[in-house]
Design a protein that fits this description.
The chain has helices spanning 27-32, 42-58, 73-78, 80-88, 109-121, 172-180, 217-229, 232-240, 242-246, 248-260, 279-283, 311-314, 319-326, and strands spanning 33-38, 67-71, 92-95, 127-131, 135-137, 152-156, 190-192, 199-201, 204-211, 266-268, 275-276, 297-299. By secondary structure, it is α/β, with parallel strands linked by helices. The chain folds into 2 domains: 27-275, Spore Coat Polysaccharide Biosynthesis Protein SpsA, Chain A, CATH 3.90.550; 276-326, no CATH class. A 7-stranded mixed beta sheet has the order 3-2-1-4-9-6-10, with helices on both faces. Helix 2 runs parallel beside helix 4 (80-88), helix 5 runs antiparallel to helix 7 (217-229) and helix 7 (217-229) crosses helix 10 (248-260). The longest helix is centred in the first third of the chain and has 17 residues, at 42-58.
């Protein structure tokens, strides 16, 4: 694996000559919110293009808001055409690297990219919207303008893979997490997973985080994650259970939020946000997630790596929106 630039290095903005100039965002957009995401590979960079296109098409008053796509330098250099298409939409492609020791764990790189985005957004935007690249914005996301006194808008994890059931004592894994990240028991509250309706200790979906940059919660995430993957007891548990390893980055997010924010600073976004499209078909669920009639942002995960041939006919919602999705997703 190529050597990586340390997290605390300087983030480079990709400068592309000869491209269509980015349309200037309005002063209101600059002062209200910024959209940001991370792409690890070519497929995800293509997803990021779709995400930016959806913002420019459906985000209403924020359709021209700043949009930042973070990616490893090697990916940026390898995909100039995709980078150019993203830049032509008025988005910036920026580089981000993770510490070498973090790369033992899946999805680690986006933690450090999120921290970079938060640093860049501080002083430029009241709100940073951090989304996974498999997100599509379908309506003006009005709830992203957080109320006064609120520093985080979140959604719970989709289903309970490694969470801690609220009506039972925390297991040895979560007890260790709370201890090493100094999470007081009084800070822990219940959330309900949308796909399997389990009540678990607060566990936040890392694919949608609406934050006030000055509160530093994404930077705290990037500080707490190495604490977890540097803890020998937790590393041993992750070796024994690959699901714990897969979601260790999200576990660190829970610790960072619970130890860094007061409960009154958080608001749970409605199920219209981070809607898990066709989740039942991918992972199982208590109900279908096949109607986008009222959805503001959706997530499609890995569904379009092997979609049902007639997926668009099974999707319920505005025909024009479904046609827009069909023109981009599910095509090789």
């Amino acid at each position: 694996m190529k050597s990586r630039v340390a997290f605390f290095g300087i983030s480079l903005v990709v400068l592309l000559s000869g491209l269509v100039a980015a349309p200037p965002a309005s002063a209101a957009a600059k002062q209200s919110l910024v959209f940001a995401t991370f792409a690890e590979d070519e497929e995800q960079l293509q997803h990021a293009l779709f995400l930016v296109e959806s913002v420019r098409t459906f985000a209403g008053r924020w359709k021209d808001a700043p949009a930042w796509v973070y990616a490893p330098q090697r990916l940026v250099e390898a995909q100039p055409a995709l980078v150019a298409r993203i830049a032509a939409l008025g988005a910036e492609v920026r580089t981000s690297e993770a510490p070498e020791d973090a790369l033992r764990f899946p999805l680690a790189s986006k933690v450090f990219a999120a921290a970079r985005a938060e640093t860049a957004a501080e002083g430029q935007a009241r709100v940073l919207v951090w989304m996974d690249e498999d997100t599509i914005v379908l309506q003006e996301p009005r709830d992203f303008l957080l109320p006064k006194g609120v520093s985080l808008g979140y959604r719970p994890v989709m289903h309970n893979r490694t969470g801690s059931l609220y009506d039972r004592p925390a297991d040895i894994f979560w007890s260790r997490v709370y201890r090493v990240l100094s999470v007081p028991e009084s800070a822990i509250f219940p959330v309900v997973t949308p796909a399997d309706s389990q009540t678990i200790r607060a566990y936040f979906n890392a694919g949608l985080l609406v934050v006030r940059p000055e509160r530093g919660i994404l930077r705290r995430w990037a500080r707490d994650f190495p604490v977890l993957y540097g803890d020998t007891a937790l590393v041993r548990m992750c070796r024994e259970d690959r699901i714990k390893a897969l979601f260790l980055h999200q576990t660190a997010l829970a610790g960072a939020i619970l130890s860094g924010l007061r409960r009154t600073e958080m608001v749970e976004l409605s199920p219209r946000y981070n809607f898990p499209l066709f989740f039942k078909q991918m992972y199982g669920a208590r109900r279908e997630f096949d109607s986008i009639a009222d959805v503001v942002t959706l997530r499609y995960d890995v569904y379009f790596q092997n979609p049902a041939p007639d997926w668009s006919t099974k999707l319920k919602g505005p025909p024009a929106t479904i046609a827009w999705l069909a023109g981009r997703l599910g095509k090789k």
